[in-house]
Amino acid sequence: MKKTLLAVCFGGATLLSPLAMAEDSFPRLETIGVGEVTAQPDMAMFTVAVEETRKSAQEAKQAVDKAVTAFMDRLQKSGVKRADIESANIYLHPQYHRSNDNPPELVGYQATRQVTVMVRELDKLNTYLDNALGDGINHIQNIELKVSDAEKYQEQARQAAIKDAQSKAKSLAKGFDTDIEGVWNIRYFDSMPRPVMARMAMDASIETKATYQDAEITFRDRVEVVFRLEK
């Protein structure tokens, strides 16, 4: 894990926020603190789908149901809890053959079902994806990498942002031969880490494991603080 603190400096009238200027005048200083923490993912959520086309709607449904059932059974036998598996409803679409001279001709039905899986042991992700292929799943729609203790890293980023705001305020006050008397106002906006999406083909090789195991998730936070200066 590594931390990076980013400094933001203001010039002229931008040091005074509109909220601060609306109150009785007194010496003040406004800073923005930004904290950043990176962590390696240890979980993942992936969504796969099976899509089949058959002459009848019933045949198409049976084909996708068979693949989804086999995949879900294999996941549970591998230790994945049922609560970590979500199977979406089936979607059926009629398929038509169209030509310029004739009306559309119904040629079959396309059925689609999705399965979303929460993987709590990242080193097993590649195995689950290989199993999906073997069970008839024919689409990997997305893989989102996650961190199990995300709240801990977000709190570290928040504390880094607070220290950043304090450090800049102390530095600026010292540069202008004054001292900070206390905090007058704090503004805070919730920050959420951006999801890390991994790309993988259905025939992914062993070497592909490193592409998500070596990835990093960045947690950022920000705080705006108005400090009261000594008169």
TrEMBL record:
Read off the Gene3D superfamilies from this record.
Protein of unknown function (DUF541), domain 1, Protein of unknown function (DUF541), domain 2
Q: May I ask which residue range the UniProt record assigns to the signal sequence?
A: 1-22
Q: Which InterPro entries match?
A: 26kDa_periplasmic_antigen, SIMPL/DUF541
The record's keywords, sorted A to Z, are: Signal
**Taxonomic superkingdom:** Bacteria
Asked whether the keyword Lipoprotein is assigned, the reply is no
An annotated GO BP: DNA damage response
Name of the protein in its database record? Oxidative stress defense protein
Which source organism does the UniProt entry give? Photobacterium galatheae
